[in-house]
Amino acid sequence: MKNFAELDQKICSCTDALTAKMDGSNGKRAILLCGGTGCISSNSMDIKAKFEQLVEENGLQDKVTVNIVGCFGFCSQGPFVKIFPEDTLYRLVSLDDVDEIFEKDIMGGEIIERLLYVEPNSGEKVAKQEDINFYKKQKRVALHGGGVINPEDINEAMGYGAFQGLKKALSMKPQEVIDEVLAAGLRGRGGAGFPSGRKWSFAAANAADQKYVVCNGDEGDPGAFMDRSILEGNPYAVIEGMMIAGYAIGATEGYFYVRAEYPIAVNRLRNAIKQMNEAGILGENIMGTGFSFQAHIRLGAGAFVCGEETALLNSIEGKRGMPRPRPPFPAVKGLWGKPTIVNNVETLACVPYILREGAAEFASCGTEKSKGTKVFALGGKVNNVGLVEIPMGTTLRELIYDIGGGIPDGKKFKAIQTGGPSGGCLTEKDLDEPIDFDNLVARGSMMGSGGAIVMDEDNCMVDVAKFYMEFICDESCGKCSPCRIGTKRMLEILTRITEGRGTMQDLEELEELGQTVKANSLCALGQTAANPIISTLTHFRHEYLAHIQDKTCPAKVCKHLMTYTIDQDKCVGCARCAKFCPVDAIAKTTYTAPHNRLASYQIDADKCLKCGACIATCKLDAIYKK
To answer: Is the pTM of this model over 0.85?
Structure first.
């Protein structure tokens, strides 16, 4: 496309085609299958192939299309199949269900009720996506196009709003674009929440022969998959956001830094860049405006520290991924010493929406200081596991119970860890607090990139702190002594406590070490390393005391502080537990009970590994932990 007129014409035709596919006005029915990593791992590509086979065998190529789309978000219910124009959503679809869907629904127009989603509280079967409680309180901005368009087809992206924001930006002056982002109140979604427009202003004010825009796709938090899903679902939006940022600061090149563990995201991003170059939307003199921009991809090797912007820049340059002292900040001296802005995937995905719909529309959603929406990877002890995008200001209670469907098996909510290893735990008293950048920090946690791990009464909070500290120790780059040594010492103390060797002095040392590491570490990884410890000590100190003073783990998680026992009155002597014990720690005993049975068994505590095989195999719940 050589100019805006050609772009408008193309967008119009693509919009008509996408609308016709969804409302059936093209005379065809459309089968949409989730092409996100989660569903692909559950055989959605095999399901797609079988649908295509059935379409061909029945000669329906002109009547039925089979399409891949991005992540639907509701990961615990995948794989998904959606049928247009009826807009029927089937979940937990297996390869064995394909024949029935094709015969009854595609051929006969009959809805298959057993594959519909069932609301856990009401038992109601729901046929349409927008009627499911999981989706009702969501608003898709960064996830725009996910579950709707084919992420490998630029025409479908254009039919769903792609490049309209870029077109508007290129008709404005660069400073006007920055002012629009400032007016929207967009803050960085990578964790720190720094105003994006201000960051852009710093880079724009620095004169240089070359400037860069870098997209941080190095998503390393345990349980986080927000950036991956955005890139898999609509890579065009992220590239468009990068281009708008480049135009605003005077950059002509951009780099996507994505971890190599995301092959689907990388391939779709590479395909999108290729298609945009072929369409004339990337490259030299874009649409006759005089603006030139090219995007490149660099793969990360999986180092968590490379999520820190200066370590990321080192990695792109071919150096070891270690943080740089600041100042100078990247906006002044970044990639190859040139002014650079680093924004994460979600931040850049919001930019086209702001330019397309206007700053006022974006800012109309959210709180006073945190505008727009936030994507969370909701996981852990919650019924509805998945990717959610909610308006800032939504409460934790709404996130966990209305969208997440509550805690499985009627268990009691204990905590939610937000912000990953850099964040902290929020408890029941925080459930009605609105979610925004400043509010979470004020309560001892942080937004982070968007991980949200729910925990119930069966979680040991000392063990949770130990888990995150193990992760941080493994991922510390070792450049500064406070992080390299301090995190190791904190892990050693937590290990002693969980093994029943802790003392009261250990608690004092934990708190002192945490403050020392926080105050003296070079980068944010070390500065926030103690957050999980500090928050669990604040809210669950009694659990630490139980481990130290009583030598017990209240949640019965820490193996060194519990024993496996057989209830002799329940045991019928079937010997299943003994057969499955990997170390022969279960043997017959001479105990006599008042009822008939084959024999009775006991567990040798000295031999027992506490692996749980006996509990898993006992059908009478005769084995328990104490």
So the answer is: yes
